[in-house]
């Protein structure tokens, strides 16, 4: 479940909040497609990826060509406390030839990603 991957969603779904009883929970400042990309990264397009599998997360970032959206994906991963997504994006950035060293360092600094520094 999404709650298993994210303390944010665990609190939202199972914490003492009114949202846990809602059938639909609005999430502001995120487009549908952006959130769908996060779900695809974790679970794959058809839900076949194993939750918590780093190799699946990495594969899905590459498979869905989401590398170019890495900055926004990192913003959402940070906001929703999705460490496995953050780690996958970092790994893709390390292997990336389409991002310059400067771009990688700027992203690293902005998100305090010591792994990229």
Layout of secondary structure:
Layout: H1 2-5, H2 7-14, H3 32-43, H4 54-63, H5 70-79, H6 83-95, H7 101-110
Pfam families: BTB
Domain BTB: 1-43
Protein name: BTB domain-containing protein
Question: Could you describe the 3D structure shown?
Answer:
This protein has helices spanning about 1-5, 5-15, 30-45, 55-65, 70-80, 85-95, 100-110. It has one domain (about 1-110). Helices cover about 55% and strands about 0% of the residues. The chain contains seven helices and no strands.
Task: Name its key features.
single chain; 117 residues; mainly alpha; 7 helices; 0% strand; globular; SKP1/BTB/POZ_sf; BTB domain-containing protein; BTB/POZ_dom
Largest β-sheet summary = none
- The portion of residues assigned to helices is 55-70%
Number of domains: 1
> Could you state the order of secondary-structure elements as H and E?
HHHHHHH
Straight-line N-to-C gap: 32 Å
Query: Assembly type of the shown chains?
Result: single chain
**Number of DSSP strands?**
0
**From the helix content, strand content and strand pairing, which structural class follows?**
mainly alpha
| Count of alpha and pi helical runs | 7
InterPro entries: BTB/POZ_dom (IPR000210), SKP1/BTB/POZ_sf (IPR011333)
Domain BTB: 1-43
Pfam family, one: BTB
Protein name: BTB domain-containing protein
What is this structure, in a nutshell?
The chain is mainly alpha-helical.
